[in-house]
Design goal:
TIM Barrel, homodimer, alpha/beta, globular, seven-stranded parallel sheet, two-stranded antiparallel sheet
Chain lengths: 365, 365
């Protein structure tokens, strides 16, 4: 079993090179939620597992679905199949999934006592199945491509823990954000440390890069985003620099294009960009200081293949001839996305992107 | 029955003065969806009506709920109680509401034939109940405050018509946006003309200002927003300048803070601002060329009254001592918002805002 990573052994290191803003032969590509319900082979494994949580909690099955999109599409990175709510579950909140309704917690967290009593999980104990999943993925990947470990951002995890389920308006979380900011801060501090230990354990088990999903950062007001979400992600990056030195971190705050420059100052290696921000504008905003990952509209995968090819060309052109672009969607791939349309996207990136890197190499020469 | 408006007869014209960026004694205030389920008197009228659509389609009942928040909170403007989906309903799509699931259409629109066959409704015929509702509101208001008429933006209406219901990902609308842009454009053109005639009829019946809700503009990519949503709203403002000259128009694209400057160039009188953009930043972005309406986080109304007062102070301070601010939420008021918290908001705006206008008057002197 592989438990540490020899980066030089990777057969395809485009993703890590782009993340370090080094030259590559073509733009590396992976898709958020690439192991998912749009794939028939995923649905088969899911049926075998019985339910979503069992699939997450069985390392061999998690590794099986993690590798499916690598086998089918030759993506340049694998991302551990898991869920962002594993940490609150390990804290004892009682995670469960209701078909069609999404995740819910039996014990939401709203009072000072609730927060004070939350444990910081030991990843090798309460989250052992995730860390074993990382090991199983690394072993199965056999150095074909890098493995990305991930977690939810402290703020995004806090919203689920406070609301007790997904939410459209975050009324309970916002009641704390506005009415009891010190309480929310205490919860975020606990989550920041929990996420740091969790991601460091994933890195120790072999994850080559770490990604933090701040799905609900965009629901906050500007001050709230800076103080509660961005600041806790900044502390997280600082902690990871100590706990998992040298492992690059990608931050993704959906709906937060206005904060890209501030996010780039956290010490992260890369930033996710959603489709509402032009990726060329994003590149100018961060001035080449970090890599950018994105930003194809997931719903554009419902357009015909010829259109998808044109849109890939536009995304590549918007980013331009410079290192540091990782092709991805602007959010997770949607269920019912036609598999042949994903193939068209992959083919277009493979065929159209080398020209931009040849140009970059020429400019550098 | 009053069918035309004598603006000079209005007993409270703060809202219209602020919209024209003229001096006022205090910041005018109204709330999006102020006539709604958070009010016990609304729930009583709704129960009397039986269901939501009957309430919308009965002018006397619509006027009754329109005036309820004016009576309770002395808001500075009334907004017609109605729904943005009246136009698609009048086009024959078969609007219905399912409890808990929101609006849906029996006949969604997706093909060139579907779009070609859509009629442009005559507001005084197929939407007569709305125009009668405007007349009933004007009569009941008896010039206490101005009445705002409204409609959904062409893009936002198109998303419901194409999806056949509310959507999280807009996959069918985006399939047209990317794969068949000429078809989407044809639909938007028809909607733009329908909305223009509809809003002009509301103005002719007495509406003192017109607001366009682009609830789903923020779901689009940047090019898509400019070409499909912003451009159709721009044409709409141009048409209204002909069909309803002198009646000010407010545009509100939720999640589109990055486009405020471009929106300000459409010829509208004011722009809605959601809570994710700082309203002081917004003011600097538009350089005083339009009025700004917003941008209190609706979820902040779940914080304690003392916090609400502090947040009102911050919003007023962010906007600063200048004319052209209409205090509002950054989106519709949430169900279950405590009525006493709304009272705290109203009291805070009434008590804290005059200082900013005295300062503005001093600066002007």
């Amino acid at each position: 079993m592989i438990t540490t990573t020899d980066k030089t052994a990777l057969l395809n290191d485009r993703f890590l090179r782009a993340l370090a803003r080094q030259p590559v032969d073509r733009t590396p590509l992976w898709l958020m939620r690439q192991a998912g319900r749009y794939l028939p082979e995923y649905r088969a494994t899911r049926a075998k597992a019985g339910d979503f949580l069992t699939l997450c909690k069985t390392p061999e099955l998690a590794a099986e679905v993690t590798l499916q999109p690598i086998d089918r599409y030759r993506f340049d990175a694998a991302i551990l199949f898991s869920d962002i709510l594993t940490i609150p579950d390990a804290m004892g909140l009682g995670l469960h999934f209701t078909e069609g309704e999404g995740p819910a917690f039996r014990n939401p967290v709203r009072t000072a006592d609730d927060i004070a009593q939350l444990p910081i999980p030991d990843p090798e104990v309460e989250l052992r199945y995730v860390i074993d999943g990382v090991r199983a993925c690394k072993s199965a990947l056999a150095n074909r491509v890098p493995l990305i470990g991930f977690a939810g951002s402290p703020w995004t995890l806090a919203t689920y823990m406070i609301e007790g389920a997904g939410s459209k308006d975050f009324r309970h979380s916002k009641a704390l954000r506005y009415g009891a900011p010190a309480l929310l801060k205490a919860l975020l501090d606990k989550l920041t440390e929990s996420v740091a230990l969790y991601l460091a354990a994933q890195a120790a088990a072999g994850a080559d890069a770490l990604m933090i999903f701040d799905t609900w950062g965009g629901a906050l007001d500007q001050d709230g985003y800076r103080y509660f979400s961005l600041a806790s992600m900044g502390r997280l990056v600082d902690r990871l620099a100590v706990l998992a030195p040298g492992v690059p971190v990608i931050l993704f705050s959906k709906g937060c294009g206005q904060f890209l420059l501030e996010l780039s100052g956290t010490g992260c290696a890369g930033l996710g960009v959603d489709w509402t921000t032009n990726i060329g504008d994003a590149r100018h905003m961060v001035g080449g200081s970090v890599a950018l990952q994105g930003n194809f509209d997931p719903a554009a995968l419902f357009a015909p293949p010829a259109t998808i090819r044109e849109l890939v060309a536009k995304t590549l052109d918007d980013y331009g001839a410079a290192p540091g672009h990782i092709f991805n969607l602007g959010h997770g791939i949607l269920t019912n996305t036609p598999v042949e349309n994903v193939a068209a996207l992959v083919e277009a990136v493979h065929e159209l992107s080398p020209a931009y890197h040849a140009a970059a190499a020429d400019e550098a020469a």
